[in-house]
Specification:
- With 293 residues, the chain is an all-alpha fold.
- It has one domain.
- Helices cover 74% and strands 2% of the residues.
- Strands 1-2 form a two-stranded antiparallel ribbon.
- A hairpin with an 8-residue loop joins strand 1 and strand 2.
- Helix 1 runs parallel beside helix 12 and helix 5 packs antiparallel against helix 11.
- It is globular, with a radius of gyration of 19 Å.
Length: 293
């Protein structure tokens, strides 16, 4: 489940970059993504088990925090980061999040984190740095790095809060509440009546090696909502019923590898031995984490 989610998130990065190239802001794309995901998830819950939407006042407070900080902010910070940084670089920084989860588990949760998890994290982060060629120097935008670091913190919060919540609530209703509060947050921040609807109907080139192909912006946004949000978010939260947040975070570090591979193939058209070696090192770290029962 986590591997499939990582692949979908990785592809979603390049699709989102194409959308952002139309002039639609990171905030507006996040708003549309949250609202679309809410509509899809709400339809699923109402058609299957609407009673799952019941929640106490105390739980609503938790779900509100989850929706605003772990759902809304993690998305917009990522979009803001990839506006200023290469997708791979932004994801490498964001995926310091799993390290923060492990540190939280060890020093705040007082859990025993096996030594091989730390080794797995070190392997994965080293591999990611090879994938994006950090060792040869990458031009870094200060604000982009800041957004990526903030995204790492919110990503860690997302994993920890979701892990806590799935003990008492199913993944679909949890995400439904999460995107409800995220959508409410963005509606207050930037009301829908000011949404640039003219951009949505435009046809845009997919760029790079797919420059000859053109699609309407609304179709790309629909992809982001369904294949880039509803499905992978459900898979990640569902996986937390079977794996600890630390291990889910390590496995999810496959996303930057996929994201970089897609970006190279789609936008840049070339991959070197260093990138392939880095991807193999990340996979080694993921396999090692899987042995930490």
């Amino acid at each position: 489940m986590v591997v499939i989610a990582a692949c979908l998130f990785g592809l979603n990065g390049t699709v989102s970059k194409v959308i952002l190239g139309t002039g639609l802001s990171s905030f507006r794309l996040t708003e549309a993504r949250c609202a679309g995901a809410l509509a899809g998830l709400l339809a699923i819950v109402l058609a299957t088990r609407p009673e799952r939407l019941r929640a106490s006042r105390r739980e609503l407070l938790f779900l509100g925090v989850f929706g605003v900080f772990a759902v809304a902010l993690v998305q917009v910070l990522y979009f803001l980061a990839i506006r200023r940084l290469d997708i791979g670089v932004a994801l490498v920084i964001q995926y310091l999040g799993p390290l923060l989860v492990a540190l939280w588990a060890r020093f705040v949760g007082k859990e025993h984190v096996r030594r091989r998890i730390w080794v797995a994290l070190a392997l994965a982060l080293t591999g990611l740095s090879l994938v994006v060629d950090l060792w040869r120097g990458v031009s870094l935008d200060g604000l982009g790095v800041t957004f990526s670091l903030m995204a790492a913190v919110t990503f860690a919060a997302y994993l920890l809060l979701a892990e806590h919540a799935v003990g008492t609530r199913d993944p679909v209703s949890l995400l439904c509440f999460g995107f409800l509060f995220a959508t409410a947050f963005w509606t207050v921040v930037q009301p829908w009546w000011s949404f640039p609807t003219g951009v949505v109907g435009e046809r845009v080139s997919l760029g790079g090696n797919l420059a000859s192909l053109h699609l309407p912006v609304w179709a790309l946004i629909a992809w982001v909502v369904v294949a880039g949000t509803i499905v992978p978010f459900f898979l990640i939260v569902g996986a937390l019923r079977h794996l600890a947040a630390t291990r889910v975070g390590v496995i999810a570090m496959l996303e930057p590898v996929i994201g970089t591979l897609v970006a190279f193939a789609w936008l840049d058209g070339g991959l070197g031995a260093e990138q392939l070696t880095g991807g193999a090192v990340v996979l080694a770290g993921i396999v090692l984490a899987q042995t930490a029962r």
